[in-house]
Specification:
This protein is α+β, with helices and mostly antiparallel strands and 817 residues long. It has a domain of 133 residues. It is built from 28 helices and 28 strands.
């Protein structure tokens, strides 16, 4: 069937359309004071009555606008939006643009009162035989229509949006009448310039550009205020049919339509002959720019994703996630984040230089920088760019933050965990200058990752030494070795920290109780990257290997934030990425972000810092690579998980805390004898190899212009300890004796760790009669008739448990500089 035949109406339908159009014409003549050539009959009176009963109060509502996410220094991170729109004021729109839109859409705009009788009458009679109601609408009516659609979409009412655009049949005529009534009302309350500006801010200009400012930016990389006659005519010509006159997809049609608009502008005297000729001869001159509509197109995609996901959890933005998402997409918010763009750039640069994204070893790196005392996140970055091409080293997983802000599950923190054991020790009164008592090691033959057999000394811990909460099963041994060196008898607290001695920290964890150390981890803000069903974060395991040697996983942000608890003098704050939000009217949306709690005394935090200042400042080994420039005071800790598949350096000053992770997120192998870029790293990678020097570069940059602040000194008691009366331990088991001693400010070393759990303390060795210096462990010996297991028996038990291979988590083969 031809289009002409398709448009031909049934005679009865045509007659009905003619009667309806006659009715409307008569009604409008009466309403709009057309010349009295048409009498007001009964049908017209009925139409007038219907028209009078239509609502006239037109509420325009908020216009959908794009949201801007910016850094603290004003750089745009992204503009997530449902519609790309930037609302501007009347004086921010070129007169050429106003003239062009009026010329092509409603040349009598400044003469009518919202409805144009001549245009409407002509359209009604022309449409009577065609079945549609197109044409005849003034700019004011068009604005009413588009505004009703926009508001319906904002409200999620798709049916109302459909009704607002209905064209055909009686429903189309009814819609037209509503538009006219609203338009007449609107013209009584708004000036022509206000109506025209609102229209230009609202209409669609094709290619996802809503409103004239967004269109000017998109097509010509300019502002609405700077549009030339040719550019203005191009945009004005799009509105009637965006699909067919889009300059990007249909440039020839766009030029043809532009020239029609220019001719109309010339006819109306809006441009001179010379301007008309010049504009008509000019090319389209597109200079396309695309907004960072999604996080994927942002210069900082992982930052953007973190911010958006964090905001979707904020009740201040709406009761439901759907309401929050709508506000973010359409609310025209200005979201100022805590991030510094220069620090983001520097952190990303340093990570990429240390670990090129497309390296053959699948090694990745990430960092997070947090402000102590507030929780403000100053930077997150990673070496891998956003994308799906693994060959280029791309990923869509953010490594720096926790779930639900990413899909990463975090990474084993290795020896980083030792700082939490140290904190618990200080809380229990063990001083900075204390000596950690050590058990005798057992020489065990083990097979390393290369299949080579060698004999190494290991500290063997027995299940009876741990409370039930530690989750150590009966018969389950924990054998711990050092990465290098063997220590006997006792070792200074600071040396054990500087050398990252696993056996010493395992002994300290056992004396303190792994369960209590885990609680201190939680107090300081350390948790795993996973969420529990109740929405809380999963705490670290109470297993000794997890607590003492960092077998569990965490994100760089969480690790950095927990160290910030020490930097702030014992105040833990929840990390947050958003400093402030303004709505479209410039009003502040209040956020409850400063959630802080004191979890350590300032004296306790200062004592821990004094211990961990020794790592970068006095060590001649690898951790000295983290020493900051200019003698700036800092404290920190390396971390290497078993097999060196994850390496860390985390440190802090009074102003900032930073964690750097370098590892294998895909668990494709150990970090040994690898090449990254043009550098080869023989042997094992440690936290001191790449993470520490990268940390230094990031922190040196972040501290530019900041004073070199010192940490407060701890008290004499926490530095040197004190002499304590040893309580009576008669009739107590080892576990009970340890608890009593801890309550007195003392720690215990079990000289017969293989003794059963019910064995009672037989002998107590103190530094002087009945009294003990809290800087040294109290030696307790349980009564037991059981012989110490031979190395062969221990080896057999470990082999049965699958824990004999050197370098496994159970073996605790971590500890490095």
């Amino acid at each position: 069937m031809s289009s002409r035949a398709h448009r031909r109406l049934h005679p009865l339908a045509a007659l009905l359309a003619l009667l309806v159009s006659s009715l409307l014409a008569g009604m409008l003549a009466a309403l709009l004071f057309l010349p009295a050539v048409i009498g007001i009959g009964r049908g017209t009176e009925a139409g007038v009555s219907y028209f009078d009963n239509l609502p006239s109060d037109f509420e325009t509502g908020e216009v959908t606008q794009q949201t801007r996410i910016v850094t603290s220094d004003g750089k745009t991170i992204a503009t997530p939006f449902g519609e790309n729109r930037v609302v501007v004021e009347p004086d921010e729109i070129s007169q050429h643009m106003k003239d062009a839109q009026v010329a092509i859409e409603d040349e009598r705009f400044y003469e009518h009162n919202g409805a144009d009788p001549k245009g409407i009458a002509r359209a009604l009679f022309n449409n009577a035989g065609g079945g549609g109601t197109q044409g005849g609408s003034t700019l004011t009516q068009q604005y009413v229509k588009v505004s009703l659609q926009d508001q319906a979409l904002r409200d999620g009412d798709l049916e109302a949006a459909r009704r607002a655009a209905t064209q055909d049949g009686l429903a189309g005529y009814a819609r037209k009448l509503r538009e006219i009534k609203y338009a007449l009302s609107l013209e009584k309350t708004h000036s022509k310039d206000e109506i025209l500006t609102n229209y230009l801010n609202l209409v669609y200009y094709g290619d996802r550009a809503y409103g004239v400012e967004a269109a000017a930016q998109h097509y010509f990389s300019t502002s609405a205020k700077e549009l030339t006659p040719a550019q203005a005519a191009t945009l004005a010509g799009i509105v009637r049919a965006p699909g067919s006159t889009d300059p990007v997809r249909n440039p020839e049609a766009a030029i043809e339509r532009r020239n029609v608009v220019l001719m109309k502008m010339h006819e109306l005297g809006q441009i001179t002959q010379a301007e008309y000729t010049e504009a008509r001869r000019s090319p389209l001159g597109l200079d396309l720019s695309y907004p960072q509509r999604s996080c994927a197109s942002s210069d900082y995609p992982f930052v953007c994703t973190y911010v958006v996901e964090w905001l979707l959890d904020r009740p201040e933005l709406g009761e439901t996630e759907g309401e929050r998402e709508t506000l973010l997409d359409r609310g025209g918010l200005t979201i100022t984040t805590t991030f510094d763009s220069s620090l983001l750039d520097k952190a990303g640069q340093e990570l990429r230089e240390a670990v090129p994204p497309d390296n053959d070893n699948a090694v990745a790196a990430a960092t997070a920088v947090v402000e102590p005392g507030t929780g403000a996140v100053k930077a997150i970055a990673q070496n891998r760019p956003y994308g799906e091409d693994r060959g280029k080293g791309e990923t869509n997983v953010g490594y720096s933050v926790d779930r639900p802000y990413t899909t990463s599950g975090g990474f084993a923190i290795g020896s980083t965990a030792k700082i939490y054991t140290a904190t618990q020790a200080i809380r229990d009164g063990f001083p900075v200058q204390g000596m950690i008592g050590l058990r005798r090691t057992t020489d065990l033959t083990a097979v390393n990752s290369r299949g080579e057999e060698r004999t190494v000394p290991k500290g063997v811990f027995h299940p009876a030494e741990f409370e039930e909460c530690a989750g150590v099963k009966e018969g389950e041994l924990w054998a711990v070795q050092n990465d290098h060196g063997s220590f006997d008898d006792a070792i200074p607290f600071k040396i054990a920290t500087e050398e990252s001695v696993n056996t010493a920290y395992s002994e300290l964890t056992t004396a303190l109780s792994p369960c209590r150390v885990r609680d201190t981890m939680t107090d300081m803000g350390l948790h795993r990257a996973f969420l529990e069903e109740d929405g809380s974060y999963r705490p670290f395991s109470t297993k000794p290997g997890s607590v003492a040697l960092g077998a569990d996983e965490a994100s760089p942000l969480t690790v950095a934030n927990s160290f910030a608890t020490l930097a702030s003098g014992g105040v833990r704050c929840d990390p947050y990425p958003v400093e402030g939000i303004e709505d479209v009217d410039g009003k502040t949306i209040e956020l409850d972000t400063r959630t802080c709690e004191r979890v350590l005394s300032e004296d306790e935090a200062s004592a821990v810092t004094e211990v961990y200042r020794s790592v970068p400042e006095t060590t001649s080994g690898g951790a000295s690579r983290a020493r900051l420039s200019g003698g700036r005071v800092s404290a920190g800790k390396t971390g290497t998980a078993d097999g060196s598949d994850e390496t860390w350096y985390t440190g802090y000053t009074p102003q900032l805390a930073t964690s750097v992770w370098v590892g294998t997120p895909d668990s494709l192998g150990q970090l040994r004898d690898i090449t990254l870029g043009d550098k080869t790293y023989p042997g094992w990678l440690y936290g001191s190899t790449l993470a520490a020097p990268t940390y230094r570069e990031i922190m040196d940059f972040a501290h530019q212009g900041l004073p070199n602040e010192s940490f407060p000194q701890s008290s004499v008691d926490l530095r040197q300890g004190e002499v304590v009366e040893v309580p009576d331990l008669t009739g107590l088991t080892v576990l009970e004796a340890r608890q009593v001693l801890r309550e007195a400010g003392l720690l215990a070393l079990n000289t017969k760790p293989w003794a059963p759990a019910d064995a009672l303390v037989k002998r107590v060795v103190t530094t002087e009669n009945g009294r003990q210096d809290s800087a040294r462990f109290v030696e307790i010996t349980p009564h037991t008739g059981e012989e110490e297991p031979t190395p062969e028996k221990i080896r057999q038990m470990l082999e049965e448990q699958g824990k004999l291979v050197e370098g496994t988590v159970a073996d605790g083969a971590t500890g490095e500089n």
